[in-house]
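for the writeup, i need someone to sanity check this before i put it in the appendix. the sequnce is what the collaborator sent (i think, or maybe the updated version? ugh). structure was predicted straight from it, no edits. if anything looks off just tell me and ill rerun, i have time this weekend
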Amino acid sequence: MKVCLLYRELERAADEKYYDTDSIIGDLGLKTLFLSAAKRLIFEDGKLKSVEKEDPYLMETLRNVMMIPLTSEDDVKFRQDIVKDFLEHEELVRGIYGICSDVIRKWNMLGRGGREKLRQSNPVTRLTEDIKVLHLFCDSLSAIRTLLSEQEKELSSEGLKKFRDDFFRSFSKEREEFVKKVLGDISFYTDGSDEDDEGREQVVRPRIVMESGLEDGLKFSSLKLEEVSSRSEKFYKRGSAKYKFREFKNSLTPDSFSTVNDQNIDEQSQLLEFGIVSYIVEELKSELEEYRTFFDKLRFQSAFYLAAVQLKAQMERVGGEWCYPKVCDRNDLSFEELRELVMSMEHHVTVVGNTMSLKSKDLVIITGANQGGKSTFLRSIGIAQVMMQCGLPVMAASYSSGLFPRLFVHFTRREDSEMNSGRLDEELKRMSGIVDHVGEGSLVLLNESFATTTEKEGSVIAYDIIRALRESGVKVLTVTHLLSFAKRMHEETEGKTDSGVQFLSAERKEDGRRTFRMIPHAPELTSFGLDLYEEIVGPV
């Protein structure tokens, strides 16, 4: 049975992951986001009461899904609608995820993927475990059916409604009742025998009715199974007077016999029970075979949506507005009160938001004062873009952008003591890898790239690389302290309304105070480092 909650017709992504996912996760700080989404916040009377321990499976699932971008507006909306549905019915996604996790845990305990040698060498053990797995499947499917039935008229998203309808068709009420009846009929094989503990009041015994003819030599012919069922009867200790009386009574019944006093008959009856139950279980296994991968798929896909629900709670915890992004043209980018989500989660504060409308721009150059929020601003766009491209809401009042399945980050890094070459060489190697994979419709985020060499040399490198990227149809957002590069770009585009270049600057008040907001502004020719010096040392 298909789940198809992440993609309309597919269980797994047909698209590739981002190039260099480790850099995207590390430079944008997404590990904090994964960790936060894996924790459930417990509120009482509108106040945070406790935080549950993180669920590693939610972390890994969110990481895997976020690193495979959606490639169409229709796919984004499909997933967003399911997120909205689960936010309205949080207990549904928690219930589904909990049921699937419990199934897989118990299934593993029953030997899934393990103890295979024991199962192969002991057919009775294998049959017993198969029956228990079928019971587990049936009970879990019934629980999911109950959850979906409770929300039958409340669901609105295409994906969830289709999943519900497909599930009801596949595991109909009639099928559920049939499977439960058959499992009940063979329950004698796993639920007990007269060898159980002495204090047991009831014991489950089989009732097997077979029709047969007799040929010459008293040989059976036309053997046919008429009925298999289980019955409970009072338990009597072997050897007791009541036990002997019952066996004597059974021996007088013309269409039945006792196996107690005849070892050969007892062994033959056990073989008969094993053969009949094996046959029935094989038939049931074929009935339920489609569910052997169903629980894995449903657990993975529901884990993503549970992480989305918990991520929304984390965003509300830090007091920021959140919204569902809209897909627009790739050269357009606009947002209101966009905040850097990772910083908010790490410090449990509401960071300053930025509002911007960048229409028909394929290059954004950000300059300005040190410690003015430039890198934070760039990360806020990168985080929002990755979240948008996997169908998640973002921390902003509104956010509109194109889709960039090929998204790249190039952030300057502290020198590594294990480097075999200089920092510039390391930067150029990473940039070479990006250049090998970019193409039209790519987005590249540069944060103080090529600042590891002289200002003059770095400006030349930045100018040549960014010009080549733009000519290849790549959109570039860069934070830079390379003033010669910024000045040169400004001189080439000044007065041109269709240059496709936007200059932003970190706002600085006359008294040196930083507002941490970006404003349209010509490139600053200083980073105002003296402000920080005076703040630390004192007036010059």
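The mean pLDDT is 85. The longest helix spans residues 123-150.
thx in advance!!
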